[in-house]
Design brief:
The protein is an alpha/beta fold and 328 residues long. 38% of the residues lie in helices and 14% in strands. The longest helix is centred in the first third of the chain and has 15 residues. Bound molecules: S-adenosylmethionine, 6-(5-methyl-2-OXO-imidazolidin-4-yl)-hexanoic acid and iron/sulfur cluster. 6-(5-methyl-2-OXO-imidazolidin-4-yl)-hexanoic acid binds next to strand 7. Belongs to the radical SAM superfamily. Biotin synthase family.
Amino acid sequence: MQRNDWTRQEIEALYQQPFMDLLFEAQRLHRQNFKKNTIQVSTLLSIKTGKCPEDCKYCSQSARYDSKLEAEKRIAVEKVIREAIEAKESGSSRFCMGAAWRNPHERDMPYVLEMVREVKALGMETCMTLGMLNASQAERLKDAGLDYYNHNLDTSREYYSNIISTRTFDDRLDTLDHVRNAGLKVCSGGIVGLGESQQDRIGLLYELATLPVHPESVPINMLVPIEGTPLANVEKLDVIEWIRTIATARILMPTSYIRLSAGRESLSDSDQALAFMAGANSIFSGEKLLTTPNAGQGKDQALFAKLGLEAEKPKVSVRETAVDAMAG
Ligand code: SAM
Ligand code: DTB
Ligand code: SF4
């Protein structure tokens, strides 16, 4: 059962309670709603990198900052499929494709639709993050077999304009509406460590937990500071605040997957164990996120073995395809 009428006061009280009580309640709800010791694993691939017209102050891909990132045009669909096969073989159940666009242009649609069809045919769950979508684009992605669309609120409504000026908080809510109305699953979360206050983290959680339907997937990123961006030297957030954000998200949205997302590279094994205790049950695997390094597969396998965790099996039915045969 979902509650969408949370008040900020209630969320603040949950967030600020003694840490052990917060973790205990989050883990209790986690076990009520999910298979214990099981983590959903996704793999990310950047299908178009850099030269983005938006001005998100945290991002290596914005054309406005000198982040020294090498831009790359749209990569070939065949290359995406090879990467997806590799991800599947290494135990990933979802393949998430991201593009540094404000929004996909109409001329990009045949490209992304073909990609969705082919990745889906491998028996993987599909996810895309391409910027803003209109209703028709969301519907066509759904028809092609897309499962999830990622579009983050990023931070609280109040702090938002300190971070992004080229699209509004309401633009983001409109895209989430189109995604939901098209019947796609929603992946939406945010970033902590942007220099925001605790009230802003509570504000972000409030916005997510009071959406008409909770996002099925909630990534909680920790800023990966990028040289050349305005947030390059922002003070690092205490990990306990990140974990409080995750645990509160778990309590507010008990049936959503909560993803320990960007920034995991900088966490120790014991920090990650705490995040899983707090109800995080999804990660990105692989050496790279979109443009920044991530804990590689070897490290994650060792961590899973140490903690007795296992990767969740894909939920989509596996279709025997020629590509499957190639992979095997
Ligand atoms: N361009 C698309 C958009 O912004 O909607 C999709 C890709 S964008 C990179 C997806 C999300 O990644 C952002 O909304 C942000 O939450 C997260 N992100 C980007 N750069 C980050 C960084 N340096 N540290 C942590 N999270 C980051
Ligand atoms: C999300 O919330 N985190 C992922 C995914 N959605 C697309 C992206 C993280 C990007 C981290 C910075 C980078 O690698 O460029
Ligand atoms: Fe562009 Fe997305 Fe980066 Fe913002 S977060 S600059 S929209 S790639």
